[in-house]
Write a structure and sequence with these properties.
Distance between the termini: 26 Å
Number of strands: 8
CATH class: Alpha Beta
Number of domains: 1
Largest sheet: 8 strands, parallel, barrel
Radius of gyration: 17 Å
Structural class: alpha/beta
Strand order of the largest sheet: 1-2-3-4-5-6-7-8
Number of helices: 10
């Protein structure tokens, strides 16, 4: 699999804003900062403007990879994988986050389709908020996330989304994934406004590549560049 990011550790601003103007402000303020490795676009901007226009906007400022998080892709029938991957590839997206909650057949189909379009699949299993698993309420089986991760690893996936505000489960998932993937890489939301921090999130990974996905902690700050730089400094100096 081709490498998505140039650094072993870094920060990915999550651009969960409403307007192109706000997106431009984030990119312009952060694209030259050491430690910024890419940008995550979500469904709010995607549904409002369309992916081609968004990627084109980012490209006015930087060649850093753009990741798309459909919030949540991988929850449809398997046949939708090819169509979804095609749209992302044609728009210039480089990495795609999926949470394959629709079962292993859908997971396999989406991963295969993304690989076929030369995209990097980034597979999540457990989310950051409470009330997601059965232990917190009758919804998704407690064992489902680990199955999503191991199924992805078996298909050749190297990038995974784990909840950055849950260090205990990060450790559990890494222990399993690291037995299947030689060099696993982790993208972690939940750091900042959702209660997670760099040290607690990165420490359980035992030196594996780690990337903090940070949204409101950057774009809602009065000084976007200063906020992003603080996170970057912490990531780059973490040992």
């Amino acid at each position: 699999m081709r490498r998505l990011f140039q650094l072993e550790r870094g920060v990915i601003p999550a651009c969960d804003v409403y307007t192109i103007k706000a997106l431009r402000e984030i990119i312009a303020a952060t694209c030259d900062l050491e430690g910024i490795v890419g940008y995550k676009l979500g469904a709010v901007l995607g549904l409002t403007y369309g992916l081609p226009q968004l990627v084109s906007t980012v490209r006015e400022y930087t060649d850093l990879p753009v990741i798309y998080d459909h919030q949540k892709a991988g929850t449809d029938i398997p046949q939708m994988g090819e169509k979804f991957a095609t749209i992302c590839a044609e728009a210039g997206i480089k990495g795609v986050i999926i949470f394959p909650q629709a079962g292993p057949e859908t997971e396999a189909a989406f991963i295969e389709s993304l690989f076929e379009k030369n995209l990097v699949p980034i597979v999540g299993g457990e989310m950051t908020h409470p009330g997601y698993l059965t232990k917190d309420g009758p919804h998704i089986r407690d064992s489902a996330p680990i199955e999503m991760y191991t199924n992805a690893a078996a298909k050749g996936v190297e990038y995974f989304v784990v909840p950055g505000n849950k260090p205990d489960v990060i450790k559990q998932y890494h222990a399993v994934v690291a037995r299947m993937v030689k060099e696993p890489k982790y993208c972690m939301p939940g750091i900042g406004r959702q209660g997670g921090d760099i040290k607690s999130a990165f420490e359980p990974l035992e030196g594996a590549s780690a990337y903090a996905i940070i949204g409101a902690g950057i774009y809602e700050h009065e000084d976007i560049a200063a906020a992003a730089e603080r996170f970057c400094t912490e990531v780059l100096t973490w040992e």
